[in-house]
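Let's sit down with a protein and look at its sequence and fold side by side. Please make up or recall a protein chain and show it to me in full. Label the sequence line and the structure token line clearly, so we can match residues to local backbone shapes. Go ahead whenever you are ready, and we will take it from there.
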Amino acid sequence: DFGLLHKLHGTKTLILGNHDYQFRTLDYWKGGLQDKMDGSTYWLNAGFDRVVDDRLELELLGVHFLLTHEPVDTEPGVYNIHGHNHERSSSNPTKINVAATVNRFKPVSLFELALERADVSVSGPMLENRARGKAVREAKRELKRQNRDEYI
């Protein structure tokens, strides 16, 4: 649903996969001359911020990631983020399946993946602050509920 894609926050990156390279255009289906549209153009028009042909290497919080469409073997210490295996996750902890069907159609945050895998000296304080913030937000919500219930 491209309408939903435009509503998602953050930078949306697509690593092109086996079915993402060319598309029949609306003109084609209406009997026009233009037959196919380049996959990158199609996906950028659909709402992705960046389209990558093969792979993308990133480092976040000291964690090294290799983003690919299909799962690949990586060097030690590098995590492979992929989505080709739509229905299953790997038992290999260095291969992270972010396919929508595996993740209940929810976007996967690269920051969250990095935070879970970062060195404790980096992630420990961040996780503690995040937990503290979550507790404060929940306390505020509870207070709002109680205030709302008083006036009902």
